[in-house]
Amino acid sequence: MDRARAEDDAGWPAVAAWERAQAQRTYAARCAVAQAEEFVEQGDPLGQNDVRCRR
């Protein structure tokens, strides 16, 4: 796998850099979603931060 990456870097450096950047953004987005899901699953035990509509 490392050899293939090195060949890609040598043959198509701009594409390889773009793919690495995309992978980092995707990873960061997955982490953010996982943290949000964890936060929602924990809930607010005291009910202090419930979202309610006011009329």
Task: Summarize the structure in words.
The protein is 73% helix and 0% strand. The chain is mostly helical. The N and C termini lie far apart (59 Å).
Shape: rod-shaped
- Helix and strand content put the structural class at mainly alpha
Radius of gyration: 21 Å
Unreliable stretches, pLDDT < 50, 5 or more residues?
A: none
The total of beta strands comes to 0
- Ends: how far apart? 59 Å
What kind of sheet is the major sheet?
none
Strand content: under 5%
Overall mean pLDDT score?
83
Helix content: over 70%
Annotation field: number of helices = 2
Helix and strand string, N-terminal first? HH
Q: Could you write a compact summary of the structure shown?
A:
This protein is mainly alpha-helical. The protein has helices at residues 2-11, 13-42.
Can you tag this structure with a few keywords?
55 residues, mainly alpha, 2 helices, rod-shaped
Secondary-structure map:
Layout: H1 2-11, H2 13-42
